[in-house]
Amino acid sequence: MKNNKNKQKLYNLFPFLYSLCKNIIILLSLNFKYLFFLRRKKQRIIMVVLIEHMGDIVACEPVSRYIKKENPDDFIIWIVKKEYKDIVRCNPNVDKTVCVTGLTELILLSFFKFFIREINLHISKRKYKPFFNFFISRKRFRVTLKNYYEYGSLLEAVCLAANIKKLNDPPIFHFCKDLKSVDLPKKPYAVFHCVSNQPVKNWGSHNFTRLANDVIDMGFNVAEIGFTGIIKLNTDNYYNLCGRYSLQEYAYIIKNASVFIGIDSGFSHIANAVNTYGIILIGELGNFKRYNPYTGGYGNGENAAIIYNEKGKLMNLNYNRVLLQCIDILNKIKSNA
Fold first, then answer.
1. What is the maximal distance between C-alpha atoms in the chain?
2. What distance in Å separates the CA atoms of residue 180 and residue 170, rounded to the nearest whole number?
3. Helix orientation angle between 61-70 and 154-162, rounded to the nearest 10 degrees
4. Cα–Cα distances in Å, from 140 out to 76, 108, 145?
5. What percent of the chain has pLDDT over 70?
6. Which CATH architecture has domain 12-162?
7. 285 in Cβ contact with 314 (< 8 Å)
8. Are the CB atoms for 3 and 89 separated by under 8 Å?
9. 47, 117 in Cβ contact below 8 A?
10. E strand residue ranges, 203-309
């Protein structure tokens, strides 16, 4: 067993070293570009650093707009993990997207940003362990993983952590021109996303299967998206789209849906960014008994209904309470269609 783990670490090392060498060359070339060309024109190179997670990257899209508005001639690069590149690569305010394997590579690359200004959007005390343990710890800032939602939305907290202007703008998802056509579910359809990378945010397969069945009875088709499907229905009105599409394609599916129903996750942030009405289920998270991670229509309630379990984890949220709100909202959506 130990030998298998050592082999896996070795297999992971090769793509890591390849990516690291490639990105060192990119950063060195950008430093060269600044030193001999951009500096004369008083243009800067700004490196936005936020490599994960999906929801964080979507929520922080307004940062790129803010930087570009303040400094239209500056050259902006965004450092991101490869699996989230689709969120950033077609943003017109980002001039170059640089993909990394993880935080270890990011820390090593930081030694090669000689003439590049860094805006680090990671919140203090985040831990990552691909080869070694590292902490992003900026003691001079008061925002940490234990208190960040005390400062407002995710975007507002991240801006304070990065020591930039506190923003509260709605996010925009930028679709790429090379986006291929996607076979959409039969309309009207509701998009469900049910699984978070933090188990405490989950409501469970039984609850979502039951809710999906009731939504179908209300005259909607149900499309489940994400990396893992948990709805267990055997009907033509249910579409299991999990693990089949890129993030760009999932965003397109969400954009064309009548409603998004799900948990606090990266896909809910995408739904907010494409202006699809949302029904979002949230329970307590760590120190936070009640929080709202969103800006825009999901943040102010104009384009979403957030159903809280204020007495504990989301798993314990009462099913009938959710169903009654869904019935009311979906009936209004049908009448306005």
1. 65
2. 26
3. 50
4. 25, 22, 15
5. 91
6. 3-Layer(aba) Sandwich (3.40)
7. no
8. no
9. yes
10. 221-224, 238-240, 259-263, 278-282, 304-308
Q: Comparing 94 with 181, which gets the higher pLDDT? A: 94
Is 0.70 surpassed by the pTM of this model? Answer: yes
Q: Tokens 């990671």 map to which residue?
A: 122
3-state DSSP assignment of residue 144: strand
Q: Measured between alpha carbons, how far is 272 from 58 in angstroms, rounded to an integer?
A: 9
Say if CB 155 and CB 62 are below 8 A apart.
yes
Distance CA 110, CA 29 (A): 14
Domain 189-336 maps to which CATH number in 3.40.50.2000, 3.40.30.10, 3.30.1300.10, 3.40.50.40?
3.40.50.2000
Cα–Cα distances in angstroms (integers) from residue 34 to residues 25, 28, 318, in the given order: 14, 10, 57
Specify the pLDDT at position 216.
98
- Is 90 exceeded by the pLDDT of residue 48? yes
Q: Which of 154, 157, 179 is nearest to 57 (CA)?
A: 154
Residue with tokens 């996607």: 182
